[in-house]
Amino acid sequence: MSSAVAMEATRRRQRLSSNWGVSETTEEPAGQWGRAWEVDWFSLSAVILLLCTAPFLVFFFVMVCDQYQCSVSQPLVELYSGEATLRSIWEKAPSFTWTAAQIYTVWVSFQVVLYMCVPDITHKFLPGYAGGVQDGARTPAGLINKYEINGLQSWLITHALWYANAQYFHWFSPTIIFDNWIPLLWCTNILGYVVSTFAFVKAYLFPTNAEDCKFTGNVFYNYMMGIEFNPRIGKWFDFKLFFNGRPGIVAWTLINLSYAAKQQELYGYVTNSMILVNVLQAIYVLDFFWNEAWYLKTIDICHDHFGWYLGWGDCVWLPFLYTLQGLYLVYNPVQLSTAHAAAVLLLGLVGYYVFRSTNHQKDLFRRTEGKCSVWGKKPTFIECAYRSGDGGLHHSKLMTSGFWGVARHLNYTGDLMGSLAYCAACGFGHIHPYFYIVYMTILLVHRCVRDEHRCSSKYGKDWKRYTDAVPYRLLPGIF
């Protein structure tokens, strides 16, 4: 489909939706919930700033470990004093290698094969696991996509092969990821930019569903935040599902295992802090894949379009900055006291309990259409109505019971508790590993605002009723 047809579909949706207001208030017209249609100067400035600085920020946090034992301040002091220059720092960094390119090509290709060619069978023998073909959420244009959910199976196969290699086959060293870490950074950047640029061009030339495209008229915003809602190649290769979950999140636990192997190689032992980071982050990763079908109903799939933000972010930002704690512990092995380790473990597990229980309550409520028990009681809710871009009137229920009656995003609160636990496992010697909790706080607070703006546009006055019933976002009584 040509770009003219795609943009005409966008304009047609704008004209149609202008007559579909749920009420006569000033809420955004129905059918326009989702990513922004227009860009203000503040948003545009933020987009350009991120496009220009995010790649260098990733390089900085990886480089300071390679050259400065993970000290964030030392390179800045040396630059200020003239002891170092940007050029000297750059020249010390390992460059692109064909070995790293081969490793990454094999890795991504293997994940594509697992995603596309190995239908899920784990749901047939794992009670409670929802795998195989699943329906996604309704898109703004009214479309419901189908997905092949096989992330848990891919994770299990990948890690079984990793274990078999480490114990029996010895095809490659368990430290292979760490040993090629910065060269792999260049490879992931190449893929991130290629995928993002391809998705950008595809939206103009042959979009998967033109009715779900959004053209803001600003090339920078379109490139970063994406135009297509669910770009696909063929029937099943969905860009958002693949790149959000694979190859980055499958790799997350392998990266941590490689860090642990390197620590063993360098020092002859693995610290309890490294074990904690591996265990707590593995719980999060396994939770993601166990609930991959539920993930189809979250903001990443239901709201975000696929652009540089997801394409480059999933290829580069996620695997390199979400694993900073393990990287730090390779260069700075920290053996925690029993009390400190126990406190970190408790914080991480309580955070996970809040995160998972909150999401479970919502999923249970959605699956049973409110005909369930939450905290021993029948859940209360607010009935909402909204229209999709095809003109259809739909209804939804917003739960006001359980954790969802305590705060509107208590799952994010649990996520932040877990994030803090990862960082606290590294002790308090450097601020480097604490970048993650700072980033996650900014991300999730911003996501709260984005999600609530979307819901306000989608549900109108019904959303106001909901926020009156549940007044706090993350911290009851505070925020």
UniProtKB/TrEMBL annotation:
Its main location: endoplasmic reticulum. GO terms for biological process: brassinosteroid biosynthetic process; cholesterol biosynthetic process. It is a multi-pass membrane protein. The chain crosses the membrane at residues 41-64, 266-286, 306-324, 336-355, 419-445. It is found in: Endoplasmic reticulum membrane. Keywords: Cholesterol biosynthesis, Cholesterol metabolism, Endoplasmic reticulum, Lipid biosynthesis, Lipid metabolism, Membrane, NADP, Oxidoreductase, Steroid biosynthesis, Steroid metabolism, Sterol biosynthesis, Sterol metabolism, Transmembrane, Transmembrane helix. It catalyses: 7-dehydrodesmosterol + NADPH + H(+) = desmosterol + NADP(+); cholesterol + NADP(+) = 7-dehydrocholesterol + NADPH + H(+). Pathway: Steroid biosynthesis; cholesterol biosynthesis. InterPro entries: ERG24_DHCR-like, Sterol_reductase_CS. It comes from the Eukaryota. Gene3D superfamilies: 1.20.120.1630. One of its GO terms (cellular component) is endoplasmic reticulum membrane. GO terms for molecular function: 7-dehydrocholesterol reductase activity. Its EC number is 1.3.1.21. Catalyzes the last step of the cholesterol synthesis pathway, which transforms cholesta-5,7-dien-3beta-ol (7-dehydrocholesterol,7-DHC) into cholesterol by reducing the C7-C8 double bond of its sterol core. Can also metabolize cholesta-5,7,24-trien-3beta-ol (7-dehydrodemosterol, 7-DHD) to desmosterol, which is then metabolized by the Delta(24)-sterol reductase (DHCR24) to cholesterol. Belongs to the ERG4/ERG24 family. This is 7-dehydrocholesterol reductase. It comes from Oncorhynchus mykiss.
